[in-house]
Amino acid sequence: MNYIGIDLGTTFSAVAHLGPQGRPITIPNAEGELTTPSVVLFESDDSAIVGREGKRAALAEPGNVAEDVKRYMGDESYPKTIRGRTISPINVSAIIIKKLVQDAEARLGPIDGAVITVPAYFDENRRQATAAAAHSAGLELIGIINEPTAAALAHAFRSYTTPEGGVTEILHADGQLPEISVVYDLGGGTFDVTVLRAVGYDLAVLATAGDVQLGGRDWDKRLYDHLADMFITEHGQDPRDDPLSRQQLESTAEEMKKDLSRRDHTLFVVNHAGKTLRGKLTRSQFEEMTADLLFRTESRLSRAVRDAGITWGDVDDVLAVGGSTRMPQVQAMLARVTGMIPDVSISPDEAVAHGAAIHAAVCVANSGRAEAPQEELREDDVDESVEIVPAAEVNVVSPAGEMESATELGRLAEAAIAPQAEPPVGTSPLDELAAALKCESPAPAPDQQAQRHFDTTAIDNEKREEFLDWLGAELTTLIGSIHTTSVNAHTLGVVAETQSGRLVVSPLIAKNTPLPVRETKCYATVADDQKHVLVRIVEGESKTAEDCLLVGTCIIKSLPPGLPKGSPIVVTFNYDAGGRLHVQAVHLASGSWAETFIRRGDGVDAARVHMNREILTKFKVS
Ligand code: AMP
After folding, report:
1. Which candidate, 208, 24, 12, 32, places its Cα nearest to that of 103?
2. Which of the given ranges, 54-58, 177-181, 428-432, 471-475, has the highest pLDDT on average?
3. What is the pLDDT of residues 502-523, one digit of tens each?
4. CA 206–ligand 1 middle distance (angstroms)
5. Angle between helices 89-108 and 429-438 (to 10 degrees)
6. CA-based angle 485:490:494, to the nearest 5?
7. What gap in Å lies between CA 128 and CA 603, rounded to an integer?
8. 257-290 confidence digits (pLDDT tens)
9. How far apart are CA 120 and CA 190, in angstroms?
10. Computed from CA positions of residues 5, 540, 510, 570, in that sequence, does the dihedral angle turn out positive or negative?
11. Among 85-89, 143-147, 383-387, 551-555, which is the least confidently predicted range?
């Protein structure tokens, strides 16, 4: 029985497991390296090379290389065609995961389950895409944890290993352990900042903020554009126009950035179209051209602390994780803003994978425990103080017009019974993956949603017992006592219609609300004799429905006939600590109701993922 933690990074990925005395250990890849570049070289129609070699080949065959896909997770249109086909970010990620698991299996034996990490600021779509990639790779996904929480876990765990290597205490409550930590995580493609409070064995997230489109790559891009502009000034030609020169320039830019973390200046050479540009760049020039990027992280850092309801004086520790925190400008900014020397003692490349390995053990240790049953909403459950949204302000759970709802219902029902598209027979796995992407994935009917969506894999009891025996009684108790709680990174609400017919978002759970949480609001029907109510559940900070992400629907199909306009519909959101959102819509007078379950990271269409899984088994990855 082997359980691992995977840090699936934008630029690098890492895998860890718990070794003797429960210490997290990074598992080297087949090349003997502790991190694997998240780069895929599609060398033929049925094989791919992941990692260092893929990265090197990016220079020679840029058209066959996929990188930075984490930035596009949740968006099926990865802006690149590989070997003439469109491949989804989910499938590129699945190929990376396949390589990571394959290499881990070569060292440990069969892998029985894994925890995978995601940025805390990832929205529902991106989390679901990550889970889809894990399932497509054939991985038994036993949990998902936010990257900063994983880093904080690794930090706390490490603090209490004895000199002999045995673990004595984890997440101590006697004041030895910093109570409030801020984790600043700047990786290759994403930025997260999280405020956590540790009390005893409880690690609670107080607030999170971030930017899923900000990372070391953006610092590289500034240097890359700067060098290209210099080249144009000198030679009148743009090296970015040629794929090979472009790749070389990208590589030079990243190397220069790393040099500038160690030295106050660096030298460079750019070759393109038989011409050469040589020069020198200082650290202060680099810092000047990237000051706005650093400022973006600074403003989110301040916002997270504000949202947590604390001041810097309350913070005990600032952890810097992610490869980009090696830049002196980051450490200087952290020291200036926080008034503390950032703790960089934890390996920025391995901390997240280590925390994921600990969380995998927590999932296994706790897997036998029964989940609290979901409560049913009864009439007397509705809080007297529940806000009844005034009719003048928000009139209806939208869209309430019978025609519109009926059309929507019909579309969903038709889609649910539509036959599954089969990939074409006799083509290469790459063709099949590209074809699978084009297959219209049928939308599940609302009452089929639970069956058609993935859940995290249940842990095999025998393997669990074996793992806990290996862990030993003392560690099992300690690990079983670890309890992490989170907040929802984005506001959750429903789409409602104003009297003027505008679709707006009516929030139920504000962002950074500690989980679990239960919120109820009352809405009203908009038409006389309305037959259906469609509740659209959305995530996002905007008041405008189109700017938010639709994460699910919940439809009351049969309201009693003759209901007057303005009849109350009670909507309840029940968001548990495990990230499971239960939405119920009830017409209390008649008892007509509907519900849906949405689980963070598992709203993946099973049929499509199953298809990908089949195809990917034929794909050779090294
Ligand atoms: P991660 O996603 O945490 O592995 O971080 C990868 C990012 O860290 C990439 O953008 C790297 O270029 C960057 N990085 C790694 N080492 C350094 C360094 N010494 N100085 C600046 N950036 C670095």
Report:
1. 32
2. 471-475
3. 788 899 999 989 888 999 988 8
4. 27
5. 130
6. 115
7. 6
8. 999 999 999 999 999 999 999 999 999 999 999 9
9. 10
10. negative
11. 383-387
Name which residue sits closest to atom 7 of ligand 1, judged by CA. 188
Q: What is the number of other CB atoms lying within 10 angstroms of the CB of residue 69?
A: 27
Give the span between the Cα atoms of 279 and 289, in whole angstroms. Answer: 17
Q: Is 279 helix (H, G, I), strand (E, B) or coil?
A: strand
All structural domains of the chain, each given as residue ranges with its CATH number in brackets, are 2-173+346-369+456-485+607-621 (3.30.420.40), 216-289 (3.90.640.10), 379-447+487-599 (2.60.34.10)
Distance CA 340, CA 391 (A): 51
What is the whole-number distance in angstroms between the Cα of residue 146 and the centre of ligand 1?
19
Look at the chain and count its residues: 622
Q: Report angle CA 472, 478, 483 to the nearest 5 degrees.
A: 135
Which amino acid does the sequence have at 298?
E
Best mutation site among 8, 11, 260 for ligand 1, i.e. most ligand atoms within 8 A of its Cβ? 11
Phi, psi of 489 (to 5 degrees): -70, -25
CA nearest ligand 1 atom 9, residue: 188
**Given the CA of residue 14, which atom of ligand 1 is nearest to it?**
4
Quick check: 380 pLDDT over 50? no
Asked if omega into 561 is within 30° of 0 (cis), the reply is no
Residue having the nearest C-alpha atom to atom 19 of ligand 1 = 258
Give ligand 1 pocket residues (Cβ under 6 A).
9-12, 187-188, 216-217, 254, 257-258, 261, 322-324, 326-327, 348-349
Nearest atom (ligand 1) to Cα of 216: 10
Euclidean distance between CA atoms 396 and 379, whole angstroms: 20
**295 close to 160: Cβ distance less than 8 angstroms:** no
The partner residues of 114 in beta bridges, in order of sequence, read: 4, 141
Instruction: Tell me which DSSP letter residue 453 carries.
Output: B
Alpha-carbon distance of 182 to 555, in angstroms, equals 41
**Does residue 321 surpass a pLDDT of 70?**
yes
- DSSP codes, 102-160: HHHHHHHS---EEEEEE-TT--HHHHHHHHHHHHHTT--EEEEEEHHHHHHHHHHHHHT
Beta strand extents in 332-447 (DSSP E only): 396-397
